[in-house]
Design a protein that fits this description.
The protein has eight helices and six strands. By secondary structure, the chain is an alpha/beta fold. It has two domains: 134 residues, 2-enoyl-CoA Hydratase, Chain A, domain 1 (Alpha-Beta Complex); 47 residues, Orthogonal Bundle (Lyase 2-enoyl-coa Hydratase, Chain  A, domain 2).
Length: 195
């Protein structure tokens, strides 16, 4: 399953018409995590290393995706399934969610684990709103913002400000940076080149 997700996330990452990726599941389990049978000692340490290396590659694929990866959580998420959810850029969940120790979606929101909690009936509508919002933005500027976020996380506050300074100067000098400024000043809809 993890290899399939890695492949799906990376498949069209250079296609400028790709604007977002939504990870979801069918049924009442979003992800229960690793197959514990594969983690028994009898599977061997090399197999264990491969499993966790693949999990790391999956998380890296999400982080390095140039478009936002959205978790549409419509059921139980535990262990590595919770890690998968937490790695996504935007996390919208129906108002039920269990993470190992049972916690509600509302508690997960209060802890900062999820972005938004809606009723199960509103989940599709909310995800569509998020995607529509992303579609009206420059893909290249969104990608730049995502890259900046992950680069600045491990820096001191001053280093992060300096990096932000550099990225903002570079951003406003891109075609889409200038188009965003022009469209705002002229109160017109932007015409993005995604460059």
């Amino acid at each position: 399953m993890m290899k399939n997700l890695i492949e799906a996330i990376n498949m069209d990452k250079n296609n400028i018409s790709l604007r977002a990726i939504v990870l979801t599941a069918v049924g009442n389990v979003f992800s229960a995590g690793h197959n514990l049978k594969e983690l028994q000692r009898s599977s061997g340490i090399e197999n264990h290393k491969l499993i966790f290396n693949t999990a790391t590659e999956l998380m890296r694929s999400i982080i390095e995706s140039p478009v936002p990866v959205i978790a549409k959580v419509n059921g139980f998420a535990a262990a590595a399934g919770c890690q998968l959810v937490a790695t996504c850029d935007v996390i919208t969940t129906a108002d039920f969610l269990l993470l190992g120790e049972p916690i509600s979606a509302r508690e997960a929101y209060e802890y900062g684990l999820v972005t938004k909690v809606v009723s199960a009936e509103q989940l599709d509508t909310e995800i569509n709103k998020i995607i529509e919002n992303i579609k009206y933005k420059s893909r290249s500027v969104v990608a730049l913002g995502k890259q900046f976020y992950y680069r600045q996380v491990d820096q001191s506050l001053l280093q992060a400000y300096k990096l932000g300074e550099e990225i903002m100067v570079n951003n406003i000098n891109t075609n889409d940076g200038q188009e965003g400024i022009r469209s705002f000043v002229e109160k017109q809809k932007a015409s993005w080149t995604h460059e």
